[in-house]
Amino acid sequence: MDKIQKKLQTKSKATFQDYFGKGICYLCIGLIILLVTCILYFIASKGLATFTQDKVRVFDFLTKTNWNPGAVDSQGHPDVGALPMIVTSFSVTLLAALLATPFALGVAIFMAEFSSKKGTKVLQPVIELLVGIPSVVYGFIGLSVVVPFIREIFGGTGFGILSGTLVLFVMILPTITSLSVDSLKAVPMFYRQASLALGATRWQTIYKVVLRAAIPGILTAIIFGMARAFGEALAVQMVIGNAALMPKNLISPASTLTSKLTTDIGNTVMGTLPNNALWSLALILLLMSLILNMLVKFIGKRGRF
Amino acid sequence: MKEYNLDDSYITDITEESALSTKDIQVFYGDNHAIFDANLVFPRFKITSLIGASGSGKSTFLRCLNRMNDKIAKVDGKILYRNVDINAPKTNVYEVRKHIGMVFQRPNPFAKSIRDNITFALKNNGVKDKEELNQRLETSLKEAALWDEVKDNLDKSALALSGGQQQRLCIARSIAMRPDILLLDEPASALDPISTSKIEETLKKLSEQYTIIIVTHNLQQASRISDYTAFFHLGHIVEYNKTVKVFTNPKMKATDDYVSGNFG
Amino acid sequence: MNAKKVDKIANVVIYTIVALVVILLLAILGYILFNGVPDISWHFLTSAAQSFSSGGGIRDQLFNSLYLLVLTIIVSLPIGLGAGIYLSEYASDNWFTDLIRTSVEVLSSLPSVVVGLFGYLLFVIKLNLGFSILSGAIALTFFNLPLLTRNIEESLRGVPNLQREAGMSLGLSNWKTTTKIVLPAALPGILTGLILSAGRIFGEAAALIYTAGQSAPTVDYGNWNIFSSTSFLNPMRPAETLAVHIWKVNTESVTPDAHLISSASSAVLIIVILIFNLGARFLGNKLYKKITATK
Known about the structure:
The complex is a heterotrimer of chains A (305), B (264) and C (295). Chain B is an alpha/beta fold and 264 residues long. Chain B has 10 helices and 11 strands. In chain B, strand 5 (74-81) and strand 6 form a beta hairpin. Chain C has helices at residues 3-36, 42-46, 59-90, 95-109, 112-126, 133-157, 161-169, 174-203, 242-251, 258-292. Chain C is globular, with a radius of gyration of 23 Å. Chains in contact: A-B, A-C, B-C.
């Protein structure tokens, strides 16, 4: 066997380079999987301790309206009802999405369908910049502009669901807009051409053809926006008032899951019920983000061009 | 499309020294059987053309010869090079590719300087000596007939070259590795006629030192430059013979129709 | 009502919406910049924060933000590269790839406060690192990794397959082809994504409140010994960042000039992020032009 024949049949430096490279990649991937598993495990085990260790009933936790982890109620159960936070979180999220969607769609239609190049060229970077503005800055503006404004008009303290909604509205507007633009642009050109060729006006084409075709993408965009709103902590915490009370109206101080967490977790002692109850709130947050994530996947599977 | 009996074929015996040969090559893309029982012997220091309509499997077959289909398709059968079956799973594909180089349909120089395009793989192969690197750079560029055009701009980005120059750079990049065999997959199909004729001249010259196997859809090109020609149809090799014979006296009806333009 | 009329009305509605949104955006940017910029002074940027009196600056917070940013990138870039390379170059269509993609998606969908709390639980409490820059950098890594991974994967995928085939046909290993040919060609995209993510890291606060902490101890900027507790480089010290500072002075602090500090700090934050955004575009374009040799 000559030298070349031998080389052809034995491993070389290149072979080992590949082993090495693959090893590194698997290491990184493994790290990510481990990390996600750890997060899920730690938050779940901490969050469930309220129910397993402290014997709080899940049903009570989700439906009672009194949050007073230090005390017990008349039947001797710890007084942790998370309903106020859950209701507030869902309220601000849904209201913000409801408010932001028409605006986002309007801008998205403008950018994808009207698309004077100038408009897109100016709007695109501005929207990207808005996505990039830190949430504390939004919170600060909320605190110094929105809250006094609400106080001026409706009275009260100004803190509450309405202020939270308005701040979140601005925060998720760019998210929903840019994802909607992508899904509108993904609608094939010939859909529009076919519709216009049949004598439809531009609006008829947009409304009856393009928007319908882009519905899965737009839904995904809205869900991403809601996920951002639901998980947002500081901006909301700064304007919502942070009172763990059942919201009576849109302008009374309330507390979301995230705001309760950021306010209290540093003031409780690890392993005690007040602390565990907060981890249960974190678990709800985690589950909610998983559910929204699955929803996005589900929509993605059903609606493809 | 006309129907031909695909089980019938004419494969001539090669009496010259063989550089590479295939035995019962089958290629599958998933469930799709793309190449059927390909048996060919490629003579040394000759140019062999693989011709056929698009989808006939000629490119697929070519890419098997240096294992470029590894990730894309399943390839069964034997490919013999220096009496080693290089299609065996434990064969070192990196060594195979060093000896059997490839040039692709579209020029694909690296986004590096002209010099680095040639020397990059060499350096990775342990050629460290500056003198030798320069030497190889010059020789391979000369062999690919590109030296005179680029010798003053060796450190310019390769992407600034014209399409034809880029393709010759790719040829130079391959031969800088001093392979035995050069595989070319329609190397001139994306180029203008002048660049094409330059590439053809280059290949003619190279065939003095290298065994060349070229896929082409251009029949004139095949007849101009190659010594042997294989005609592919629907994954079968229908005819393999000296180029002159394939074009002037084809043995098979399908070949006759194809080279005379009555095909399909 | 006929179709033409509806079309006209729709036009008016859309233009109105766009105008409203643009005004809103300009108002936000304008508010921050007009309120904040006049208060930014050399003194503000270079003096320490004051807890009970006015006139405090943001020197330490600004440095902490930058230091955390650098550490976070040092930790997350290699992992993101490895994972991105795996997903674009090695991953085949199977359950394992699905698992990875799902993991990355889950990680990216987690609220940053949850990521922060996890970091708090694991690093601050269980591993006993305390509130420290290191804990903060790791928490920010978790927060940054999914986006970075996806960005790297997409940039690598954008490199034409022909480049990989060229490398392979020369007998180079997949690893060499990826790192020496594909990766450099993908660099403009990766760099742009990296700088944009740097902007996100710079402004993040929720993940840091309980990991890097809410206090900025006085440090000695002349002490280069990273193990010394007074060194500005010591990764084990707590470090309040600029974004956390804004949150803190607005919610818990008793500083009399809280409003001034927040508006000036917000302006600084926005300006830095603006620079990152523009820088990303500029550098990405420039590198792209250099690589493709277009003028």
